[in-house]
């Protein structure tokens, strides 16, 4: 019986030392002292309150009510801020700005269904893992090595006890479901007696974008809404292609077909890319890449029509569009991006070279180079998605800026079509620049000749 007080004393001292909580006696003494102080203050104020008239008493009550209301609002605001710290966007934000109460409530309402879905998925995973654990321990070790600071690529090694021949394909399926693209894979047997096999995967998290914030119930809001300019410029281009007064002044028969396909692809990018960013995965990525291949292949056909041969370029529109479609389907069914990479990057290299070296039929050919420059900038911003999101203090990500820069490509091409005229003498940009540099050098050398005085 004598050990119980000592035990309580040790617990109170431990709380006092480790958690900085004062003993109960101190708290009681402090509360009684505060109570005595409040009573003494009331006694001092009572005579004054009795002497004042009714208007002063009403003013005091109003002042007391305002003080209580101010305190209530401060406590409510503190509760909102505490609630905001539980949101993932608030915890990951590096900025010091304060969120308003309505925005916190909107984010909480949006976040709760996501959290419920995540909890449900984690519960199912837990059940599966428990079932696997009951069967017997199969996984020996898992290691992950991130490549670079972006967090997009990693080398994953999974060592487990081989029980059937489908484990490798099952792991590939799990990674695909998680939004990971497997760039390469290999296996190695560690222990033959225990049948332990190590699977090595070089994966890339293509669908893991930096800005995943939701707004107005739209997931990945900025990545979705930044595709809207493609729809605007695509519709404007289609209208001007068939404008009654021939606004773009096409002089070749196949040009209108090529530019129509191009603007259809641009407008379709708005729908395909928005659909993908609403639910980022490999299945929806198909509809993001398909409109872009229509735009890329149409541009190649347009260049052939304008700079090489009209008939060959016109006949190449359908085969080039078909090649783009085949490259997308080949990637989807065989998980091989090489054909699609050819369709996407060959025009990016060939078109600027053709714009510089081949003589154009129209003026304002430098707009092709402006368009190529904006597309190159868009690819750089896509690669720097997370760093840009961090540099801008989580205002906008590199992927959203990529959409805006890529939309400048059809903007410059539309301006080119509106301003250009047919050239009487076809001279390439390279020869024009070379001729201009020679004339400048000649003028410079001519100005340096000493003038002799005539006698």
TrEMBL record:
Residues 1-13 have a biased composition (Polar residues). Its cofactor is Zn(2+). Zn(2+) binds at residue 277. Its main location: membrane. The keyword Nuclease does not apply. Keywords: Hydrolase, Membrane, Metal-binding, Nucleus, Transcription, Transcription regulation, Transmembrane, Transmembrane helix, Zinc. One of its GO terms (biological process) is ceramide metabolic process. It is a multi-pass membrane protein. Residues 27-37 have a biased composition (Basic and acidic residues). GO terms for molecular function: hydrolase activity, acting on carbon-nitrogen (but not peptide) bonds, in linear amides; metal ion binding; protein dimerization activity. It is found in: Membrane; Nucleus. It comes from the Eukaryota. It holds the Pfam family HLH. GO terms for cellular component: membrane; nucleus. Residues 60-115 form the BHLH domain. Residues 1-67 are annotated as: Disordered. The chain crosses the membrane at residues 228-245, 257-278, 290-308, 315-334, 340-358, 400-418. Belongs to the alkaline ceramidase family. This is (thale cress) hypothetical protein. It comes from Arabidopsis thaliana.
């Amino acid at each position: 019986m004598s050990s119980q007080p000592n035990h309580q004393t040790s617990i109170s001292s431990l709380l006092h030392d480790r958690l900085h909580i004062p003993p109960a006696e101190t708290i009681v003494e402090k509360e009684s002292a505060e109570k005595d102080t409040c009573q003494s203050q009331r006694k001092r104020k009572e005579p004054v309150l009795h002497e004042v008239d009714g208007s002063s008493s009403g003013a005091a009550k109003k002042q007391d009510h305002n003080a209580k209301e101010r305190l209530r609002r401060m406590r409510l605001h503190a509760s909102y801020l505490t609630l905001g710290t539980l949101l993932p966007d608030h915890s990951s934000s590096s900025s010091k700005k304060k969120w308003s109460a309505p925005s916190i409530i909107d984010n909480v309402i949006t976040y709760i269904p996501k959290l419920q879905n995540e909890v449900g998925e984690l519960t199912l995973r837990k059940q599966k893992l428990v079932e696997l654990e009951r069967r017997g321990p199969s996984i020996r070790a898992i290691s992950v090595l991130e490549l670079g600071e972006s967090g997009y690529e990693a080398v994953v090694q999974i060592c487990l006890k081989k029980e059937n021949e489908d484990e490798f394909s099952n792991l590939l399926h799990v990674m695909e479901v998680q939004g990971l693209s497997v760039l390469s894979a290999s296996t190695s047997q560690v222990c033959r007696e225990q049948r332990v096999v190590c699977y090595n995967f070089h994966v890339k998290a293509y669908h893991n974008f930096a800005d995943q914030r939701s707004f107005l119930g739209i997931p990945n809001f900025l990545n979705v809404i930044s595709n809207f300019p493609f729809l605007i410029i695509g519709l404007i281009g289609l209208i001007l292609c068939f404008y009654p007064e021939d606004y773009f002044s096409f002089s070749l028969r196949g040009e209108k077909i090529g530019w129509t396909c191009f603007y259809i692809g641009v407008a379709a990018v708005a729908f395909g890319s928005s659909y993908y960013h609403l639910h980022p995965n490999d299945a929806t990525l198909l509809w993001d890449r398909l409109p872009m291949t229509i735009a890329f292949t149409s541009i190649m056909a347009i260049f052939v029509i304008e700079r090489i041969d009209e008939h060959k370029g016109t006949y190449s529109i359908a085969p080039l569009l078909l090649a783009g479609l085949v490259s997308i389907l080949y990637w989807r069914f065989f998980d091989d991006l090489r054909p699609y990479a050819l369709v996407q990057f060959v025009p990016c290299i060939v078109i600027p070279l053709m714009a510089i070296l081949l003589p154009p039929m129209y003026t304002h050919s430098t707009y092709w180079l402006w368009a190529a420059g904006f597309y190159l900038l868009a690819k750089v911003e896509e690669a720097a998605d997370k760093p840009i999101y961090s540099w801008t203090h989580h205002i906008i990500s590199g992927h959203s800026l990529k959409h805006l820069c890529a939309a400048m490509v059809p903007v410059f091409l539309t301006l080119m079509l509106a301003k250009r005229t047919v050239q009487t003498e076809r001279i390439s940009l390279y020869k024009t620049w070379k001729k201009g540099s020679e004339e400048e050098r000649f003028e410079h050398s001519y100005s340096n000749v000493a003038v002799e005085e005539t006698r």
